[in-house]
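REVIEWER CHECKLIST
Item 1: Sequence provided? yes
Item 2: Single chain? yes
Item 3: Sequence as submitted:
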Amino acid sequence: MAEPGDPTTLPPTEPDVDHDDLIGFSSAARLQGRSRAMPPSEPPAPEAPVVEAIVPKPVVASPQMQPPPAPADAPAVQAASVHATTAQAWATESPVKASTRSGRAPQAPGDVGDATGLYAVYALILFAVPTLGVSALVALLAVTGRAGPDHPVAASHFVFQQRTLWAGGVAAALGGILIAVGLGVFVLFIVAVWLILRGTSGVMALKAGRPVRDPRGWFLA
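Item 4: Structure as written out by the authors:
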């Protein structure tokens, strides 16, 4: 029974609230398998953005281009070339014709007559020393008993060879006689040196195409 002072009416109950579940009893809703309403969960906090480390790029220094050299002054170069050309033209000497003692121009080297025979005799004269005079005797026989060439240059060399061989032969024979008194070796040495010098000078003169200055003299060609 309700006593005086008790409220006549009960407060309205919330239909969704299960009081048995709140005090630990199994309610009909629990036994029926009805799911309990879950309180709303708070949304997850946004993650902080990941900041990538900025790696500084190496700075490559660009090569500095040097300015091209200034061109030389064209008028100065042209003036120098003109001056060099003028000096070269001025320094060029005109050929002067050489003259011999007789006043005639020397003949150009080339055909001097019997050049082959003259060179052969000169070779025999130069080989007189190593052959102990045998080649000189052969050369003496080659220039004796025959007429000389008609060419003036070849004729002068022919007379020069005859003079050299005859004088050398006589001096060598005299040196061989003087060996008995101890003077022959010295005379033979002088004759050998004289033959070599005469033969060498004759070859050089014949190669240059010039005649012997004094074919009948005792000195060099």
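Item 5: Key structural point noted by reviewer: Residues 98-109 have pLDDT under 50 and may be disordered.
Item 6: Recommendation: ____
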